[in-house]
Structures are given as C-alpha cells and as structure tokens.
C-alpha cells in the first residue's frame, strides 16, 4: 500500500472476550464477538502497520498478514500485552476483559449435591491492563481504549480517558439497538484529551474501524 502515517508502525490490537475458568468444563465470559477488534486490525494492516492481534477466543478468521497471538484468560492477555508493548508504538485494547474471575478455579468438575440447592461463586477483581500499561508508556507510545456504557456515556468515558491515561477512547452506548457487542454494526463517540468528541453515525464495524483508525493516524501525524 502507499505510504500513510501508520506505515511501519508496530500496532497491538486486542480483541474478543476473556474467559475465566470455574472448573474444567465451565467458565465466565461476556458477549464480545471480537468483530470490532478484528476490523481495527484489518484497517491498521491495510494502512501499512505491522499488526499483532492478541485475541481471546472468537469465531473469526484473523486478517491475512497479521501476527496472531491466542489467549484465553485475563492473566494470559495481560502477560501477552505487557510483553508486546515493550516493542510497539500503538496499543488498541478492543478486548472485552472480564472484570472479575473466580477466586478458586478447581481441577475437578463441580458436582451437584442432594443437600445443597445453592452454590456461591466467589469472584475477585482482575488487574486493569490498560492502567498497568500506562505506567510503562514511553514518549511516543500511544494507548487506545474502548468503553461500553449503558448510562452517562460521556461522563464515564471521559473519566476512563483520564484514569487510564489514554490518547484516545472509543465509547459506545451498548443499550442502543445496533450498537456494540456481537452485532455487525456500531455507533461510537471518539474522545481525545485535546480534541472535541467525534460522534459517528450507525455503520458497519469496518466503517467504524476506518473512522477510528483515521483519528489515530491523524494523531500520529500531529505528534510525528
Ligand atoms: O473500565 P472498563 O472495563 O470500562 O474499560 C474498558 C477498557 O479498558 C477497554 O479498552 C478494555 O480492553 C480495558 N480493560 C483492561 N483491563 C481490564 C478491564 C478493561 O485493559 N481489567
């Protein structure tokens, strides 16, 4: 492809929903399909970026030419991201990371018992990967997050932009029809610390990816 501000940039994209094991046959996950992350990876690749796609389980085929790293749990994802971030320019965290995981993951299948109609599963918070990566950020490295909100979209999203020290945040209101998890379409607001919010129209995820990557590309050019 012709030269773009992203040509040769080393980009990590994470995608899919992480899985937290309960026992050998059960896990906790979420509704993420991975479509938005895969669309971003494809878009980055088409603009000449060197893309590593770190993917939690999905039903999707990775774009050709992209390096695929497969992960399952949040812990796996955290390790893969932290390692890859050392030699990358841009991190796009499109993965839907489990916020909680079972305190105890057991080796044997949990059995129903005749004398107990209730089972309590104790959960503990997972580490915030983006927050941890922010501490490793060198000048010139960019981190980009996604936020799925069901209320107070702009307030919550702006708070995430600041607390995770992001260069750009893609926020979507997942309570609206056609927006966010699992579907083929999305509608997002792109937030940046030094830029007015940009609200896209409802469109297919590849079109949304183009608009997000356009903003990232313009940032790279401004800061280049
Ligand atoms: O705080 P919240 O989960 O809404 O933030 C979403 C953003 O943070 C996404 O980009 C997601 O990939 C990332 N995240 C993370 N580590 C977590 C939870 C979310 O990096 N434990």
TrEMBL record:
Which GO molecular function terms does the record list? Answer: FMN binding; metal ion binding; phosphopantothenate--cysteine ligase activity; phosphopantothenoylcysteine decarboxylase activity
Ranges for domain DNA/pantothenate metabolism flavoprotein C-terminal: 6-218
Q: What are the record keywords, sorted?
A: Decarboxylase, Flavoprotein, FMN, Ligase, Lyase, Magnesium, Metal-binding, Multifunctional enzyme
Cellular component terms per the entry's GO annotation: phosphopantothenoylcysteine decarboxylase complex
Q: What is the annotated role of this protein in its UniProt record?
A: Catalyzes two sequential steps in the biosynthesis of coenzyme A. In the first step cysteine is conjugated to 4'-phosphopantothenate to form 4-phosphopantothenoylcysteine. In the second step the latter compound is decarboxylated to form 4'-phosphopantotheine. Catalyzes two steps in the biosynthesis of coenzyme A. In the first step cysteine is conjugated to 4'-phosphopantothenate to form 4-phosphopantothenoylcysteine, in the latter compound is decarboxylated to form 4'-phosphopantotheine.
The family line of this record is: In the C-terminal section; belongs to the PPC synthetase family. In the N-terminal section; belongs to the HFCD (homo-oligomeric flavin containing Cys decarboxylase) superfamily.
Q: What is this protein called?
A: Coenzyme A biosynthesis bifunctional protein CoaBC
Protein source organism: Secundilactobacillus folii
The record lists the lineage as: Bacteria, Bacillati, Bacillota, Bacilli, Lactobacillales
Q: Which gene encodes it?
A: coaBC
Interval of the full protein contained in this chain: 179 to 402 of 402
